[in-house]
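User: Structure please.
Assistant: Input sequence and predicted structure:
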Amino acid sequence: MSSAGTADLLRLEGVTAGYGDGIVLDDVSLSIAPGESLAVLGRNGVGKTTLLETIVGNTRLRRGSVHLGGRDVTRLSPHARVRAGLGWVPQEREVFPSLTVEEHLTVVGGGGPWTVARVYEVFPRLAERRRNYGNQLSGGEQQMLAIGRALMTNPRLLLLDEPMEGLAPIVVEDLSRRVVALSREENLTCIVVEQHPIVALTLSTNALFLERGQVVHTARSEDLAGDHETLDRLLGVGDEPEGAEPAGAQGA
């Protein structure tokens, strides 16, 4: 991750947040520079999704601040944060069954550089399915649509919560390559939460580990991918499930 400074695209300082009276994140600070990509790793229940939800503005912030593009967005609503350049792909995908693929994309179009045609270039399968409704899409197609819809808001920072969850290995491989291409070719800054650490590291330049709502370790993704001792110690996992690593993909 970058050193804190005015050039950071995202900066969290001393963030303590949760839901209702419960605290999930405890004094979390991080920064990410434009063009970087960050994997958020940790065991189940340590606050990974809550971190993304806090950046979006969906949690109760007790202390600390959130800055996006040098602007303090701590008190802004989620909708205002999207207008400020935040793209959000939730774990549930939130695809509407009664809207077509093209309607999903056009309804959020903001008149910026990302157009329906550009989304179709990134995800040709969506162009083929443009007239199909949300409930007629496979899981992989729904995830492509959720990402494409977020791109239509013309984000500077894209948040991806478990983008590969429930997808077949061949779909994970294809979707991973497209997400890496967004980071490399479009210089799109991304933060990804992903249950398979090797997949997450493939999609990112940097990584951090959460434990009990606190950042306990940071590293370059390419270094961490070969550091099985650290992965085992912080995640308590053995080998990756078969098919979890996208074949032939390189670190973003």
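Residues 238-252 have pLDDT under 50 and may be disordered.
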